[in-house]
Amino acid sequence: MNYSTEVHNLTSADLADGFFDGWGREHPSKEKHLEILRNSYRAVVAVDEETGQVIGFINAISDGVLSAYIPLLEVVPEWKAKGIGTELVQRMLKELDGLYMVDLLCDEALQPFYERVNMRRMQGMAVRNYSRASGK
After folding, report:
1. What is the mean pLDDT of residues 25-35?
2. DSSP labels for 93-107?
């Protein structure tokens, strides 16, 4: 597995099928997925060495001064439970190391995963416009 922060040279053909598993019918297309990666403050991708396909990613948005937010961590289903998500989070936290706060929101069932990578539970609030899940 190769990990990279270089996402600007990626094309939609480089993205494996299967991202946004469990999102239902509305989810970002490959083109929107590329926009997400390219417009992020930081992004880290996991690339399968054999196929050259991106099979996992994490991204962060930030003011570059004090705070960052990690909105997405995705690994395609056939690659889950192989340590890729953990590696992506650890690499992203290194990318964001100089900032005061790094936040993310997740479902309660995912909190133990993030605790294993030294994040801690906090409370948060959110708005979800599910009809816009495929992007703007």
Report:
1. 94
2. HHHTTTSSEEE----
* 125-to-31, 60, 107, 115 alpha-carbon distances in Å: 29, 18, 12, 19
Distance CA(113)–CA(95), nearest Å, equals: 19
Which numeric CATH code is attached to 2-130? 3.40.630.30
Q: E strand or H helix at 61, and its extent?
A: strand 54-62
Residue 117 CA to its chain's centroid (Å): 15
- Per-residue pLDDT reduced to its tens digit, 88-134: 999 999 999 999 999 999 999 999 999 999 999 999 998 988 888 99
Task: Look at phi and psi of residue 83 and say left if phi exceeds 0, alpha if psi is from -120 to 50, else beta.
Answer: left
